[in-house]
Amino acid sequence: MSVSSEEVLRIAQLAELHVDEESLPELVAQMSRILDYVAQLRAVGPAEHVKPFIPGPDTIRFRPDEVNPWPLAFGPDKMAPAFKGGFFLVPRLGAFGDEGEAGEEA
Amino acid sequence: MSDAVAGARSAADRISKLRRLNAVLTKQTELRKALVAQADAARPTGVLYGMPVAVKANICTLEFQTSCGSRILEDYRSPYDATAVARLKEAGALIAGATNCDEFAMGSSTEHSAFGRTIHPIDKTRVPGGSSGGSAALVAAGAVPAALGSETGGSVRQPASFCGVVGIKPTYGRVSRYGLVAFGSSLDQIGVFGRSVHDAARVLSVISGRDPRDNTCEDRDPLRLPTVPENLDGFVIGVPKEYFPPDLDPGVRRACDRAIRILRELGAAVREVSLPHTPYAVPTYYIIAPAEASSNLARFDGVRYGVRAEGPLPDVRALYRETRGAGFGAEVRRRILIGTYVLSSGYYDAYYRKAQQVRALIAQDFRNVFDRGVDLLFTPTTPTPAFKAGAKLADPVQMYLSDIFVCTANLAGLPALSLPIGRVKGLPIGGQLMGPHFLEDEMLEAAYALERAVPATEEA
Predict the structure, then answer these.
(1) Which residue, A15, B102, B156, B197, could crosslink B149 as a Cys pair with Cβ 3.0–4.6 Å?
(2) Do A52 and B337 touch (CB under 8 A)?
(3) How many Å lie between the alpha carbon of B44 and the closest alpha carbon of chain A?
(4) Residue B268 · residue B237 · CB < 8 Å
């Protein structure tokens, strides 16, 4: 099952992943190779009768519906690239035009 | 100076001398300082008091960066300890740095780390296996007696086999996944490396048991360690014929034949069994794991976590794309794309649904064998000894096939371990034991007995 460059670019868009023109031919070849390989599963006959396998406990344990203390040593302000006043910040983006203060994160 | 502090300094020295392996991502000065601070605070009554345990870089620790071997999390420091790490500390163990791994645990050679490959401790031209290659190499080189790794498709047992140490993958749900950076959530488990079965089992016992922070963790007490048996009388050990294909490396076959002979001499009844869907395990795994990865890794977008792409960007989706395109390495990008493809409209039934059905058949194969009186299975861990660095980088499928004997246990959620059973041209060979769900104690009994009897450092 070969994939085309257009398909790879469409999938990359769905995956929010930039793929540059230079690496595209190799990526197309490798994805085609992998998809050809995994396609051998078609040789396995119908398996609707087999009970689905779900690892882990048979039943989900519910936790008490209560608010517990923040269990972290520090908050998201230390993890995110930019964080202010309880919000994750993104840089000024072209789509927002000239709104907001220039040079600041919006 | 306490014994633990002296031990911590000594461990820091050993790790420092092994810098050439590129097995640890933590800076030496930071590691030494953290080890001594932990030793000062360690509980002397803990069962692992003073034991240095290195931790794979995809398991969260408060002390060290949890980079997952990726540029996108290069400076990421977790605000909490993984449950497994917290339990090690409670038991008095010292967390001995973050170990190198394939990026987000995706790989079988540790060549896909953004921070350079880890070197095999015996032959520098070879790979230590992966994805937990840094942990395996560090234990094999004698820097630490034990280390944590993670398994999604054999990432503890395969490097354990390549490096000549013990690697245990517990039953899915035996050890909490809280604080393990998710790759394939239905497959992931934290595993343990040790110089011996006992070292690895002691650590496993400490980190296992129920955890209210992980709903996929079973409501069970911690694993109780079995005693070392005199013999294996009463054990029925199955040898699945599908794990001994005609193209199996002759040295691996010789080592396995010798181990099977020893199992018989120890009193076990050994019988050939069949797991007919084994040939489909790798393609099944390489649909399910990337599908789950494509969802789990969506959070690394440069807004909530990660190193953010610079430059003028038209909109927030461009920010995501540029950040992820630049932050993820080639193998991670490939798997995200494959995962997105098999989950996308028009392909879901043909790939993902089919793979789930075959996964159920693979699990059924194991149930059939265990229901017919077989206690454990014995197989080679890998089809070959450690391969040369760079040998499989050009063809991802060839790299994936090195997981052929290990990924089945992940698909079926079973416990499994690899232990050294001999050498071929000086390179270690691993033998694998697999057991039914939550019967790690029987698996460990057989491993203790085999470990004592097999000449693991002799040519097979």
Answers:
(1) B156
(2) no
(3) 25
(4) yes
Within 8 A of B322 by CB-CB distance, chain A residues are 18
Would you call B354 and A50 a contact, using CB atoms and an 8 Å cutoff? no
Query: CB B255: neighbour CB atoms within 10 A?
Result: 28
B394 touches A: beta carbon within 8 Å: no
Sort out which chain A residues have CB atoms less than 8 A from B316's CB and list them: 90, 93, 95
Token pair 């033998």: residue: B431
| Interface predicted TM-score (ipTM) | 0.91
A102 touching B (Cβ < 8 Å): no
Question: For B382, which DSSP code?
Answer: S
Q: B189 and chain A: CB distance < 8 Å anywhere?
A: no
CA dihedral B171→B409→B300→B135, nearest 10 degrees, is 80
> pTM of the full predicted structure?
0.95
**Is A87 exposed, middle or buried (CB count within 10 Å of its CB: 0-12, 13-18, 19+)?**
exposed
pLDDT tens, A25-53?
Answer: 999 999 999 999 999 999 998 777 888 89
Spatial neighbors of B243 by CB under 8 A, at least 6 apart, are B275, B278, B379, B380, B405
